[in-house]
Amino acid sequence: MSLLAVSGSIMAAPIALPAALVTAAGYVAVAGGIISAVSQVTVEDSKAKKDQGP
Predict the structure, then answer these.
(1) Fewer beta carbons within 10 Å, N or C terminal of the chain?
(2) Has residue 1 got a pLDDT over 80?
(3) By the 8 A CB rule, do 30 and 7 touch?
(4) What angle do helix axes 2-11 and 19-52 make, rounded to 10 degrees?
(5) From CA 54, how far away is CA 33, in angstroms rounded?
(6) Distance from C-alpha of 40 to C-alpha of 44, rounded to nearest angstrom
(7) DSSP 17
(8) CA distance 46 to 10
(9) CA 12 to CA 22: how far, in whole Å?
(10) 9-19 CB burial, b ≥16 within 10 A, e <16
(11) Which residue in 25, 24, 21 sits closest to 7, CA to CA?
(12) Model pLDDT for residues 39-51, shown as the tens digit of each residue
């Protein structure tokens, strides 16, 4: 989540930033989204296995 916050802040900065920095922030935002999705799926899968029992 912190990756998404930092990259969003960089991309929405009111000052002109180098294009490379803005591009890198975009890649970090995508990576943060993927990590969040994988984390959520893993937690949901663990709960489903716990509810099924032995």
Answers:
(1) C
(2) no
(3) no
(4) 150
(5) 33
(6) 6
(7) -
(8) 35
(9) 9
(10) ebeeeeeeeee
(11) 25
(12) 888 876 666 666 6
